[in-house]
Amino acid sequence: MAMAKQVSAILLLSILLISTMGYAQHALEFLVSIHDWVAELLTQIFSGGTAGEMTRKLIAILAVPVLIGLIPALLYWIVKRSWFPYFMQLVWIVWLVQAAALIVVFQTSS
User: Fold this and answer.
1) 77-93 burial by CB neighbour count: b if 16+ within 10 A, else e?
2) Nearest to 61 by CA among 26, 18, 106, 16
3) What is the pLDDT of residues 57-89, one digit of tens each?
4) Least confident of 45-59, 63-77, 92-106
5) What's the 3-state SS for the chain?
6) Would the pLDDT of 108 be above 60?
7) Phi first, then psi: what are they for 67, rounded to 5°?
8) Where do the domains of the chain lie?
């Protein structure tokens, strides 16, 4: 029975994604542009060396999912006065989507 629910859920989500593909593409482009903006801001803080570049990239890839996860967490806090129970799951989902989008648009600088 649980398997049937999982199959139904993935079918419905797939149909939803297919019908809103344009919006999903804009959302991914927006996510990548936020990442690029944060990375650009961090170039003013970190040096251009290998360690500075790695630190800048690490903070940029971690900051966006945490900041996006904080939005519903803060709204939940305002309403319930307790911590959002699915904060880390949301951060992981956003991180995975962001990582996939960044891999797709990755270009070598050669």
Assistant:
1) eeeeeeebeeeeebbee
2) 106
3) 899 999 999 999 999 999 999 999 999 999 999
4) 45-59
5) CHHHHHHHHHHHHHHHHHHCHHHHHHHHHHHHHHHHHHHHHHCCCCCCCHHHHHHHHHHHHHHHHHHHHHHHHHHHHHHHCCCCCCHHHHHHHHHHHHHHHHHHHCCCCC
6) no
7) -65, -40
8) 22-105
